[in-house]
Give the backbone structure.
Amino acid sequence: MDWRQYEREIEKEFREAYPSAQITPNAHVTGKFSKVGRQIDLLIEEQAADFSFRIVVDAKHRGRKIDVTDVEAFMGLVRDVEAHTGVMVALEGYTPAAINRAHHDDLDLILDVLNFDELQEYQGRAAIPYSGENGVSIAAPLGWVVDATKRHDAVAWLYQRGVTFDEAFNNKEVMYVGFWNKKDKQINTLDMLLEYQKEYMTKDVPEAEIQLLGGVKGQRVGARTLIRRFKKMRDSPLEFTGFIDFENFIFMCVLFTPPELERKNLRKLRFVIRDAFPIKVTYDHTHAIAKAREQLREQPAADKRASLLCQIGCWQREMGQLQDAKRSLEESLSLVQNNHKGLTQLFLVLMGLGDKGGTLNLIRRMLRIDPHNPTVFRECFNYTGEVGVTVPDLLELFATLKTDYAEDALVQANCDFYAGQMLKGSNVELAKKHLLSARANFERVFPREHYVFDILRSVLGQLPN
C-alpha cells in the first residue's frame, strides 16, 4: 500500500468515527506562534452545542517505528494550530521513548497504529458476538480487529491489527466481550451487577481500586452506559469495563491496557460501547439433532454416546426445549458423571426451569465428584442466589459433606473455607470460626508456605475485630 492509499484508508476510518464533523484532507492552517501555514494530513472540526473542537491527524507511512523526535515535532504542530487533540497514526508503531513522551505530556496526544497486514482467519472489522438469545453488533476501533476465536471462556476478543492474539495478550493490550442475561436472575440491573462484581473483585485484595468513570455520550440506541476502572494491585495492568444496559441483558467489554496507553485505549473502548447495538438470536438445530440421533442409533461406545447426548441437550436448551434438554443431559451424565460441560449446561437448564430442588441436587452431585478440588466449591459458591438457592442451603450441603468425609482434612478445610467466605458479610463470628477451622485442617495437608495461607491471612485480616 503506497502513502496515498494509506492516507485514504485513515481518512475513511475517521469519517466513520466522526460522521457529522467537517473533515479536510491535506489542510493548511496558519500557526498561532509560527505565523506560517502548517500542513495537516487530516483536519477534523466539529461544533457541538456551544463547544467546538479541532483534531489534527498525522499519517506516518514509514518503514520504521516513530521515535521521540517525531512525537515532539508533532506536539509543536498541534499546539501551533490550537488543536484540542493530536493523533499520530503509524504503520510500524512507536518506540517506548515516544510512548512515554506522549504519556507524560499534558497535551491530549494519541499515538495509534494502523497496520494493513492481511487479516487472519476469524478476524474482521466487525462481528456479532452472542450468548444464548442475546447478541450485539460491534465494530473494531481504529487499527484494531475483532477475533471470533473463543479463548479463555470469552465470546470474542479485540486487539491491534497486524499482531497475533498471543502478542496482544502478553502485551496486556487487548479487549474481550461478555454478556449478563437479566432474565430469570436475581441480579437483573446494572447497579446490582456492579455491587456483585465489586464483592468478588476486591475479595482478598484490600488494595484493589475501583472507580466509576461515568457513561459514554451518544450511544447508538440510547442505552445506559458506564465505564469502570479497576486496578487490582500496584503492578497490575489497568482494567476498564464498558457496560451497556440493554433491555434484556447487559453487554460488557473489558479492556486491559498498560498505563502509558490508557488514554488511547480508553477511547477505543468508548468507540466500541458507543457503536454497539443489540440483536436477538434465535436457533434452529432441528437438522443437527436429527443427525446426532442417527449416530445414537448406531449404538456407539459409552463416552461417544454421552458426548452426543450432551450436545443434543445443548442444542435443545438453545431452542428453549428445556424439559427435553434436561432428559438428554441427565442421560449423558449418567454415562460420564464428571463431564463439566454437561454439568454446566444442566445447571443452565434447571435455572431456566426455576427448579431449586434439581439445582441443589446438582450442586450436591458436583461436590462429590471431586471434593478435594477448590474449583468445584467456587462454582457451587457462584450458584448462590440462583433459582432461590441460599447461603443456608449451601451451608447445609457443606455440613453433610463434612460428616461424610469426617477423616479427610482437605475436604473439611475446603468446606470450612467456603463457608467462612459466604458468612463473612452476615455473621462475622461464625465466619471466623469456620476460617480458623479451615486453617487448622489446611495445616495438616499443606506446608506453611502454601499460597492458601496467604489468602486466609488476607480474609481474616478483613474481618472486624
Notes: Residues 61 and 281 are 42 Å apart (CA to CA). The chain has a mean pLDDT of 87. The two ends are 67 Å apart (CA to CA).
